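User: quick one, fold this
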Amino acid sequence: MGPTVLVVEDELKLRELLRAYFEREGLMVYSTGSGIEAIEVGRRSAVDLVVLDLGLPDLSGEQVARELRASSAVPIIMLTAKSDERDRIAGLELGADDYVAKPFSPRELVLRVLAVLRRGRATVEDVTTSSYGDGELVIDHERRRVTVRGALAELTPTEWGILTALARVPGRVYSRYELINLVRGYEFEGYERTVNSHVKNLRHKIELESGKPRILETVLGGGYRLGLMRDP
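Assistant:
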């Protein structure tokens, strides 16, 4: 599974365009048009890179960058309508890893993002099959197949997305907001109710009929987590 990118851009159409481009490259994407939301997601989520528009409606992009930098060394690529060299230097001094002036080519931005990720990360193996709980759960990413206790589980695309998102970091609690953001996009209305329904259906397919769920656990007031550890 690819790295996770947080796109912070107040223009919805551009935000969704960038999501499509990044997901095409195998990246997982959070997106928001709010600086406050961006800070919260950056603090609580495993984000590998932030694409940050400096012209946000609630907080300045510079303030968001400072807040993110205070709690993490996550790479930041800044987007701005300003093309003045002084603005570019100011952005880089705030800790930006790159700076892109609008208008820009989405494809160029994707290449810049991939370049920053390559510079900042050790080589990551592309694991095609992951096993959890001594083989109780096996996820074949290449074939998009899930087997539970040796039996094939037929999952919908959304159920697949939820399960693979949780399996990315076993034991980590993912909020409903994070899950729907990764699977469908944060603008999806009624995301809490939607996630609950998909989790209920997913449990019917992967949990034992009796007893407390042990694969997909609920954390009261938090969200959901994968209860099985990854096999060595």
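User: anything notable?
Assistant: The longest strand covers residues 4-8.
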